[in-house]
Amino acid sequence: MPAGRRLAPRKEDKPTTAAEFFRADPKMIGFLLGAILLYIGHNVLSNCMFRVAQLKVPGADEAGATAVQGTALLIAAVVELPAMFFFTTVVKKIRCDLLLLLSCLCMTLRLALTLLLPGAAGLYGAQIMQMLGYALFAVSTVYYVGTVVPKGNVVKGQTYLGTTNTLGCLIAYALGGSLIDAVGVSWMLGVCVAASAAGFLLVLLSIKKVTRTVGA
User: Fold this and answer.
1) What is the reported pLDDT for 25?
2) Computed over its alpha carbons, how large is the radius of gyration of the chain?
3) Where would a tag sit more exposed on the chain, N or C end, judged by fewer CB atoms within 10 A?
């Protein structure tokens, strides 16, 4: 890379400490906690999809349950793509905070429908919610944090957002199998629905109205 002129940060862009960051915006704490809860439900379902498939198709052998699991995960992966590719177009017409709330609601609905709808067809139908759920959530949270966090703290804000995903994954790894062993697959899904609903409520109470989304 060619040598360039050293850029000194402008005074107004100087990043703050973690304590100053959250003191300036206490609602960000609720938003990040809500994101962790939403990621827990999402990741538990993804990690334990084989056991969910066994629940939905009673009596299926291992190959049959694996086929149902694969199809469900395939549907979820395919429907994610349009939401991610067209987000920059959609966010110019619909406020980012509204898209974020919609994604939190649909992540919760995906879990609830997975619990309530019977059979493999019901499981497949629930996975369609992934389009407006996790796919929209993963993108809209990045745009939202990039918009509401002051410019000098954007990197710190995005780092905290990435940490919510990591913590959600770690808790999900420990929680999913333990819940199945303790109370069964249905109750495991029920706990995930409750966690996701609590996360949605926290985000709803913490989110700020965005009039102009950065990068849109």
Assistant:
1) 87
2) 19
3) N
